[in-house]
């Protein structure tokens, strides 16, 4: 009986891998290749150091610097951010800024009270190089989004772009970051961020297959929770959590945020191929801290 069960699990795994391979052929993803993930025996669980090591690789740093210099704001980002933060004097904090793609673009649009942070000192070092070249007044810090050093009720807006919140391993830690955003936002302030969304039709079958793997215990052993991906990209192996919308809504509401809007990027604006190659479809979230706390 035991041998029969093991044999069935092996066959199930074979068919799941075959299905993933077919999906990768039909629906290629140039950004995070979910389907190329291999299960490894005794692999260590993903943690903050795993994530940091990826973002401090020189090839990745070069990639982010190139995006800052050549891509700038996506059309959808500009539409969302201009609408959410109409005043150029709003005190805005960017978390997970990388080499400053969003903050430098906002500064060029006229925003003049920007603070940009990232957990990677090497990313901040690259950002400071561009900061000195362009002579901006953006303030840069290396900061852990789950334990910010800023005072409470300080910022009128917070941005966590390019799915950065979802690159924090474990839901409890992502929720810590959301709580920190709530803490440092002024009442009435807005929190704008993006996530991937596993309900997107393009990846529906993939996630159905992943769920089957988790049920029988043959998922990638480095992963912490269903929805996690730790996949090969052209620049190395990247961790990201892919939620569904209900997960994000629940976490925002439990912290105290009011959700004003969530919308897929493709419904905001048609992006250039350059942007599509840089980032797959994602969902924008706009949440507000109530004027009066509960």
**CATH hierarchy: architecture:** 3-Layer(aba) Sandwich
Measured between the Cα atoms of the first and last residue, the distance is: 56 Å
Q: Classify the beta-strand content into a percent band.
A: 15-25%
What would the principal axes of the Cα set say about the shape? Answer: globular
- What's the helix count? 11
Characterize the biggest β-sheet.
7 strands, mixed
Instruction: Say which CATH homologous superfamily is assigned.
Output: Vaccinia Virus protein VP39
What does this 3D model show about the protein?
This protein is an alpha/beta fold. The chain has a single domain (2-288), classed as Vaccinia Virus protein VP39 (Rossmann fold). The protein is built from 11 helices and 9 strands. It has helices spanning 2-26, 48-55, 58-70, 75-84, 101-109, 121-134, 171-184, 204-216, 245-255, 265-268, 273-278; strands at residues 92-95, 114-118, 139-142, 155-160, 185-195, 228-233, 236-241, 258-264, 283-288. The strands form 2 sheets. A 7-stranded mixed sheet has the order 3-2-1-4-5-9-8, with helices on both faces. The chain has a two-stranded antiparallel sheet with strand order 6-7. α1 (2-26) runs antiparallel to α8 and α3 packs parallel to α5. The model is unreliable at 1-42 (pLDDT under 50).
What's the short story on this structure?
With 294 residues, the chain is of the alpha/beta class. The chain is 43% helix and 19% strand.
């Amino acid at each position: 009986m035991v041998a029969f069960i093991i044999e069935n699990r092996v066959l199930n795994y074979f068919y799941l891998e075959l299905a993933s391979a077919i999906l990768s052929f039909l629906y290629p993803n140039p950004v995070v290749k979910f389907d190329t993930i291999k299960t490894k025996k005794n692999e260590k669980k993903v943690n903050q150091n795993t994530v940091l090591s990826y973002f401090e690789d020189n090839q990745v740093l070069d990639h982010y610097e190139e995006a800052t210099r050549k891509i700038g704001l996506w059309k959808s980002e500009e539409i969302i951010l201009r609408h959410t933060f109409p005043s150029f004097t709003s005190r805005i904090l960017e978390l997970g800024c990388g080499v400053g793609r969003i903050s430098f673009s906002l500064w060029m649009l006229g925003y003049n009270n920007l603070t940009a942070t990232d957990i990677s000192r090497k990313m901040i070092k690259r950002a400071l190089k561009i900061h000195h070249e362009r002579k901006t007044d953006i303030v840069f810090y290396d900061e852990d989004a789950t334990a910010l050093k800023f005072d409470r009720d300080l910022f009128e807006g917070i941005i966590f772009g390019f799915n950065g919140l979802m690159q924090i391993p474990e839901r409890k830690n992502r929720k810590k970051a959301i709580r920190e955003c709530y803490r440092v936002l002024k009442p009435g302030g807005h929190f704008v961020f993006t996530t991937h969304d596993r309900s997107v039709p393009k990846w529906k079958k993939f996630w159905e297959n992943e769920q089957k793997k988790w049920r029988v215990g043959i998922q990638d052993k480095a992963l912490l929770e269903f929805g996690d991906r730790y996949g090969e990209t052209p620049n190395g192996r990247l961790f990201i959590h892919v939620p569904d919308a209900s997960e994000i809504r629940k976490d925002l509401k439990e912290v105290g945020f009011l959700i004003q809007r969530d919308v897929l990027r493709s419904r905001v604006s048609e992006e250039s191929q350059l942007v599509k190659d840089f980032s797959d479809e994602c969902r924008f979230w706009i949440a507000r801290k109530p004027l009066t706390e509960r």
